Inosine-5-monophosphate dehydrogenase (Skermanella aerolata), 151 residues
Amino acid sequence: MGEDMTSVSDLLKHKGHTIVSITPSESLENAARLLTEKRIGAVVVLDRRGKLSGILSERDIVRAIADRGLTAALAMRVEDMMTKEVRTCQPSEPVKDLMKMMTLRRHRHVPVVDASGELVGVVSIGDAVKARLDEQASEVAVLRDLNLSHV
C-alpha cells in the first residue's frame, strides 16, 4: 500500500481534459475576462498551430498592472506577460511527484502533455492536493477496515 497509485492520468479522468486556451496576440483584458468567466487561475497559450507556447496566470496580470498601471496593462498582449518556458508533466507521472515539483518551483498550474508532446490537460495545485487527500482517505479507510476485521 505504500506505493502511490494516483497518476496524473487518474486525476484527469476525474477532473476532465478540458483545456482553456488563448492566443499570444490577445489582450490581457481578454485574458482576464476568460479567467473570470471560467473561474480558473491560469490559461494556456497556444500558437496558431495549436502548440503550447506559454501559460498566463492571474499573477502575471497583476504584475503587469503593478508595473504599467491598469489601462496600459490591460491593453498589453498575452505574449508580453506569459511564461514562455513552461514546465509540463506527463500523464504517467505520479501526483505525489507533480506536487513536489509544483511546490519546489512555485508553479500553481502545469500543462499535461502526452508522449508525442500533445497537450491533453492542465492540472492545478488544488487538483493535485485533492487527489492526494482522496488517496489518503482511501488508505485510511482500508486500514480502518483491516483493523476492525481483527477485533
